[in-house]
Design goal:
The complex is a heterodimer of chains A (343) and B (346).
Chain A: E1 7-18, E2 21-33, E3 38-42, H1 49-57, E4 64-76, E5 82-86, H2 95-100, E6 105-108, H3 122-133, H4 138-151, H5 157-160, H6 170-182, E7 188-192, H7 200-217, E8 220-225, H8 228-234, E9 237-242, E10 245-251, H9 252-257, H10 262-270, E11 321-323, E12 327-329
Parallel strand pairs in A: 3-8, 3-9, 6-7, 7-8
Antiparallel strand pairs in A: 1-2, 1-4, 4-5, 9-10, 10-12, 11-12
Helix pairs in contact in A: 3-4, 4-6, 6-7
Chain B: E1 12-25, E2 30-45, E3 50-54, H1 61-68, E4 76-82, E5 88-90, H2 96-103, E6 106-109, H3 123-133, H4 139-152, H5 169-181, E7 187-191, H6 199-216, E8 219-224, H7 227-233, E9 236-241, E10 244-250, H8 251-256, H9 261-269, H10 309-313, E11 319-322, E12 325-327, H11 340-345
Classes of the chains: A alpha/beta (343), B alpha/beta (346).
Chain lengths: 343, 346
Amino acid sequence: MNSAPILTVDNLKTYFFTDEGTVKAVDGASFAVQAGKTVGIVGESGCGKSVTALSILRIIQRPGRIIDGEILLRRVDGAGKSSEVDLARLDPEGGEIRAIRGGEIALVFQEPMTSFSPHYTIGNQIIETIQLHQDISKAEARNRSIELLRMVGIPRPERRIDEYPFELSGGLRQRVMIAMALSCNPRILIADEPTTALDVTTQAQILDLLREIQERTRMSVIIITHDMGVIAEMADDVIVMYLGRVVESGPVDEIFHQPKHPYTQALLRSIPSIFAEPRSKLPTIAGSIPHPHNRPSGCPFHPRCNERMAGLCDVYAPRLLPIGERQMASCFLYHEPEEAPQA
Amino acid sequence: MMKATNGGAPLLEVRNLRRFFPIRKGLLRRVVGQVRAVDDISFHINRGETLSLVGESGCGKTTTARCILRALKPTAGEVRFQTAAGAVVDTANLPKTALKPFRHQMQMIFQDPFSSLNPRMTVFDIIAEPLLASGMKDRDERRRRVENLLELVRLRPEFMGRFPHAFSGGQRQRIGIARALALNPSLIVADEPVSALDVSVQAQILNLMLDLQDELGLTYLFVAHDLSVVKHISDRVAVMYVGKIVEIAETKQLFNAPSHPYTEALLSAVPKPDPRLRSERIVLKGEVADPAQPPSGCYFHPRCAYAIDRCRTETPPLEEIRPGHVVACHRAREIELKGVEAQRAV
């Protein structure tokens, strides 16, 4: 049932123009988000996963800029007619993106400690969000806020609503953050490392909550994380990024059980496993992630790749192309180069 | 694989360690309560082995590590350390001045390789600083030692003139390890040494720590919250909850046959990197108890699915239920808990 995706990112390029040079934070990312499904974007630091999320919402700070690509958000009106809006073309300060931001597409950040204003009660902050997007009275917005807090599992929401963020634990704050994100019934929820700052038992609670809400509301979720375990638990489809490029994408089972790109394979092998023999060595990926100013030529992974082919991987940049029916990888093990050498 | 203990006495023995932090209020800063960060814990580490201390934030694992290094003065209890000369000293109760001859035998590896190295010092200066402090006056001798140490942690000695910013996170962590090894310590306390690193770099540092342990006969106290990392590095594991140790066992035993319900829940909560294992996880209710106002009886009882009346009133003692496996749970002998292998089989 591959209906048209609700969000399509095509060849997105977001660069940062700094004094030391241009950082290609996202350099040609493409993927699609299906209605009601969860896409996991995974990668290590500097891979561009967070910048991708910020680009979708158009909250890239200077000196960063989207320089190419499309971000198509599809809407279906009451008559069943679908239309598309390209978020990459919108004015980042304009009314249209501001209605989408927090309305149709909501964001949950990593850091529940710093994402709230410390000066206002959590109720104030949720009510403000609701009234920004919906024309309802303050009393109605307050009732809706209490309902939302109850839905995300905050005990005694009618009292908690008047508390300040510092009065809540990290886990409760992340729940409030999710409540706020859900306040305008978004069609897409972007969760950027939603559980990274939390303890493992709290993480389990929050992941369960996200799944439960998704089942109820049928919204789409984009979950961004470095944790392959979280991806395995949550995602339907997976995008693996490395240094601004999508190196592989596909359904979660294929990614974990038949990974194609050498980076995905090496990453999966190098994760410490709870099933490992005690005191056993881990296979490693040689070297470290290059500094963004020293991007390798050709395939960005080639200096660390065990299967690199000299004269090919260090010269040509592979494109993300299909392998089989549902998987895609950008690697010359599977495709011939088709273009001139790229700097 | 358990390491044989030579000489019988463990390298480190912690007895009834307590560290409370006073809560002060009002103009006179009167003490109105105590945060019982570490509350009567006992364990030992044998020479050449790795004991991991695991638990969630606020459980007291870092405070324990700092008490052992005497970066914090324990409120009560003993930290009995076997010195290189073979004597046993209680570092918890020695005056600070008397500690100096032993301090270099216990060293620390820090979590954050970005803030734990002075950005204004070269790698040589960073690693040679403890050498100089211990009286190695000859610069050439220090240079040779630093070269050796860099080779030991698999870094190129030519880099010793560079500053920390020129290195990646993994390389900086290697520099931190070289500094910790400079004075030939017997005990290394590593507080979350890989949690700030990228996955592909974590594996390199864990492997290095395993190699160094074999080469140098080091003993590790490994403080971490990531149970997968702990599984790779440890001989034995101690689980802490709200300032108390709830279970200690050999690594395999703890992961495959946990005997405390909190350990079971922790193991169950770890997201497994395999989408085919999306099983029913144990999701604990509520939150970690406040160490300033812990619940009555067993601190875990409000969240425990197995709790009975006795758990609400009576604090369970840490008891040995089989050789080398101690648990603080009234029901440890009667309940059947699931380890990670059981989850994989589902």
